[in-house]
């Protein structure tokens, strides 16, 4: 009996060892033995806060478009701290795609101080498409006495989540206007929390970098009329001269007319863009890029900014190297960066 049990025990150990060996030798999900994209991949898209523009577009992109692409087993968009956090977490392999600002993507790849990437260049991200302008919006309540950037001195100002793209832009605009963080009471808050702070009076103003109209501003304006401050011409000139990725932009008063805005808003913009993990296969990224533009109606329905996403403008402001799969698609369509 002992001998019989001993052989049974040895047999079970052998079966277990074979099973474990099989698990350990399985290729990575979405790749064959040469890393060329066999099987199916789960796509997680880093977006932003649920009161911004990235989240509704990212959710629609995942659920309505990418989830139907061959080679994708599941696609989902998740709320995040937006641009800087998205890139940092992509570097850790947490996401396969992300929405980011084109300036932040450039800082990350180059390992620059802005965006907190100094000496830490991110090497596993590639460009897929640029999407639409993201406007720097300085929001206050209409019943406040704030009418210019100069009036922010001594006030409680939300500058975005700490280290976010919005915070980088807030600091750039303030510095160009001759204002430092020492001149204001800095609050590191995302768009939704900033809007809540403006509503309940714990904040005086907030910087928001997002496609207009931005839902956080619209939601605030539903209960409290708002004023969005224009950036002075000399500040715009200083910003566009020093930073090539900034472009001058005018937001029509009609954009926030229902929220109490009465005048056009002069500001600067960066570009929103979609980045992908460099390790995704060429065929998969080709199919994802193709699907995004061929089924763009889902993005048009998700947010007003969806209409600004076009094949013709997909490489405008592209600040990092394209993924080979995306480049292949654009080459076929005759689209190239100028």
From TrEMBL:
Record InterPro entries: TRAP_TAXI
Keywords annotated in UniProt: Receptor, Signal
CDD domains, A to Z: PBP2_TtGluBP
Gene3D superfamilies, sorted: Periplasmic binding protein-like II
Phylogenetic classification of the source organism: Bacteria, Bacillati, Bacillota, Bacilli, Bacillales
Naturally occurring in which organism (per UniProt): Desmospora profundinema
Signal peptide: 1-19
Top-rank lineage group of the source organism: Bacteria
Record protein name field: TRAP transporter TAXI family solute receptor
NCBIfam families the record matches: TRAP_TAXI
SUPFAM superfamilies tied to this protein: Periplasmic binding protein-like II
The keyword Signal appears for this protein: yes
Keyword Signal: yes
